[in-house]
Write a structure and sequence with these properties.
The chain has 5 helices and 12 strands. The chain is α+β, with helices and mostly antiparallel strands.
């Protein structure tokens, strides 16, 4: 968190950083990626200006302790001149909570409608908190040379379901597994989470113990 604060609150600025979540982008025995979506409120010209980003914090382990080796802020890109109906509906939904970088991803027009329509369908049953869509995520699946679906706008991560964090021990297993199955039924070919479910589309590992991943082929 200290690395994120240093990056987003330069010396001499009056600002507050609201960390929405911190989830793994990947974890190996001696290296890790932690994704930190956050909002930033800054006083400028006598008024409060809100913004924010997602930071991919890279860490390495040496002699039993972890240290930050790099920080990579999200780069969503410029807003598109026109958006699909699905994009406009997601941005307007009060049942889908988007961090600043994810909202900017959608406004950029670089998120596939398969992702957006799935979010909208899930939101008819659940209130969902999104952590990462496109920007701010590692380009490759962490620790591999295999491209991730996230930077291509074909995946989204959910950190909160009906206001319950996926990582919280008190969150119902059935709530999480029903959400995972719903994502698969709506077209996700690659659903990861804290529980291994039966079916070719599902997977579970340490990286996904704190969020639900839904990836799409188109």
């Amino acid at each position: 968190m200290a690395a994120v604060v240093k990056l987003l609150r330069p010396a001499g600025t009056r600002s507050v950083i609201d960390v929405i979540d911190a989830q793994y982008g990947g974890i190996l025995s001696n290296s890790a990626s932690v994704l930190v979506p956050c909002r930033v409120y800054t006083i400028s010209g006598g008024r409060v200006v809100s913004g924010g980003t997602t930071v991919d914090v890279r860490l390495s382990k040496s002699r039993g302790s972890w240290r930050v080796t790099a920080t990579h802020p999200a780069q969503p890109g410029a807003a598109a001149a026109r958006l699909s109906a699905a994009a406009r509906q997601v941005l307007a939904s009060d049942r889908i909570s988007l961090p600043p970088a994810s909202a900017a991803d959608i406004r950029s027009g670089q998120v596939h409608d398969s992702v957006l329509t799935t979010m909208l369908q899930l939101a008819t049953t659940y209130r969902i908190g999104i952590s990462v869509i496109r920007s701010g995520h590692p380009l490759d699946v962490f620790g591999t040379s295999r491209p991730s679906d996230h930077p291509r706008g074909r995946a989204f991560d959910t950190w909160q379901i009906d206001r319950h964090p996926v990582v919280a021990p008190s969150t119902s297993r059935s709530l999480i597994t029903s959400y995972m199955r719903a994502a698969e039924s709506l077209g996700s070919y690659n659903v990861g989470g804290p529980y291994q479910l039966s079916g070719a589309a599902f997977f579970s590992d340490q990286t996904h113990h704190d969020h639900v991943h839904a990836g799409f082929q188109t």
